[in-house]
Design brief:
alpha/beta, Rossmann fold, seven-stranded mixed β-sheet, three-stranded antiparallel β-sheet, 7 helices, globular
Length: 303
């Protein structure tokens, strides 16, 4: 889905995109943009994906971009629509990962927001229906995708290159961008460069791409009378992340006539956040957001 004038109906009676005083849109769950890396050794040999067939969804984004809560919101939506979410507790064997699996499963049934991930936090979630694994969603520490303290980095951790280059599974890259990301322009440019670096070094022709524009509630002007203006939303993303669309320019002289870019655009909002008894609570967003994401993922999985 590329820029156009399409709109999508949603029920936003419970949304107040103007009031930022009593709600927390999620950007302040953890503010680690300028936090130095934690020097923690990661056992690269203790990371494995046994399923060599089901596509792997790579949730790609810096810290605090909303990867964890995107996974929570999508999982809740899919569970309510006949799918099963299975945490792959064999992805890593250490006790900390096992605890993370239990924690994630528990959060799916609560109204509390997930805490910010630690540097070594991973998660591999399988989406299953009728006993068949539809896809596997990989969440990894944000610094492994984009390190705000080393924006010129060109290499990825060895475990990622093994997963990406050696496994035969189709990879679907969900690049997370954030509406009104409160960082310097140079940081956004560096993030675009990192995605370009990823495409050039790691992505194959069989891979597929989604650009997810998260925290849409920060852009009040993109809503009108209960509708998301998808075309203007994509235009806003392109303006905020200058050059990102061009990374995925369609160079095929035929298909480029109707599909100028090789990505699917998804406007997104995980939910609305507020503090209660010194704990961060979470009211999930309307189903239109995870539905759009799942529709885009399904198209990538099938084609």
């Amino acid at each position: 889905m590329n820029a156009n004038n399409s709109t999508i109906d949603i029920d936003i009676n419970d949304i107040d995109v103007q009031d930022n005083n009593n709600s927390d849109n999620g950007s302040s769950v953890v503010d680690n943009t300028n936090v130095a890396n934690v020097d923690v050794e990661i056992d690269e040999n203790d990371i494995a994906i046994a399923d060599k067939d089901a596509p792997i969804i790579m949730l790609f984004g810096p810290r605090s971009s909303g990867k964890s809560m995107t996974l929570v919101r999508l999982s809740r939506y899919l569970r309510s629509n006949g799918y099963t979410t299975v945490i792959d507790d064999c992805f890593k064997s250490d006790a900390k990962y096992k605890e993370k699996c239990k924690e994630f499963q528990n959060y799916l049934s609560t109204k509390e927001a997930l805490p910010g991930n630690a540097y070594t936090d991973f998660l591999l979630v399988k989406i299953v229906k009728h006993g068949r694994t539809i896809c596997q969603i990989l969440e990894a520490p944000g610094e492994h995708y984009f390190d705000s303290k080393n924006i010129a980095a060109s290499n990825f951790p060895p475990y990622m290159t093994r997963i990406i280059r050696r496994l035969p599974n189709r990879k679907i890259w969900a690049f997370i961008t954030e509406a009104k990301w409160d960082v310097k322009h140079s940081m956004k440019s560096a993030y675009v460069d990192r995605i370009r670096n990823c495409k050039n070094m790691l992505m194959k022709s069989t891979d597929r791409t989604i650009i997810l524009y998260n925290k849409m509630d920060q852009r009040e002007e993109l809503y009108e009378e209960g509708k998301i203006h998808v075309g203007p939303a994509e235009k806003a993303m392109r303006e905020e992340y200058d050059g990102l669309a061009g990374v995925f320019k369609n160079t095929n002289p035929i298909t480029s006539l109707w599909r100028p870019f090789n990505y699917k655009f998804v406007p997104f909002c995980t939910g609305f956040y507020f503090k209660e008894a010194n704990r961060l609570k979470y009211e999930e967003s309307e189903n239109i957001y995870p539905r759009l994401l799942w529709e885009a993922l399904n198209k990538c999985i099938k084609g």
